[in-house]
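note to self — DONT lose this again. spent like an hour looking for the file last time. sequence + predicted structure for the chain T wanted, 210 res
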Amino acid sequence: MTSAVPGYVSKTDLVAALIRELIITGELEPGEQLRQRDLAQRFHVSQTPVREAMRRLESEGLLTCDTHRGFTVVAPDVGRVEENFQIRAALESLAASLAARKIDPAGLRRLRELNEQMRTLADDDPGYAELNREFHFTVYEYANSPLLLSLMRLLWASLHGGPRVSRTHAESARQHDEILAALAGGEADVASARTYHHIMGADPVKEVSG
């Protein structure tokens, strides 16, 4: 989401953010080999910022570099995924607490619209993942903390395509309703607790998007 990058950013920062976004959304899949020339053409930059951006993403654990194959997208590790869910639960509950104090009617309306769209989708509908991602990132944005937003992007990127859990979409939407009610009421502690339960009450090991 380049629109969320505040102020001036270098070409390396911009390319790193764009590649990170492609990993978050799953457009770049685990094990996929990345070619500097292709990415440079795609982002309309020289290969130098692409190479520097990929080195940065390697240090973040999102890419790996091999002498023969070059840079590839790292496959998620089950143990790390579970750990990242715990970190995500702590940070997202903080985001919900902050958002409850700052969210406006337009933000609440957008969250309700997204949740209603998710509620109508079948459990195997591939469109759910992007709606779910937008729902959660809308909450993060209303926390009004650029650092927290950046950390959440890194966590979602580490989960390659976003969190995957075993509950049904209907159950996720019901839990979103509870979080929304707390946000609408300005109940920071309740929003935090319900968000923490929403994250940790799911099974992150299963491969069903939710």
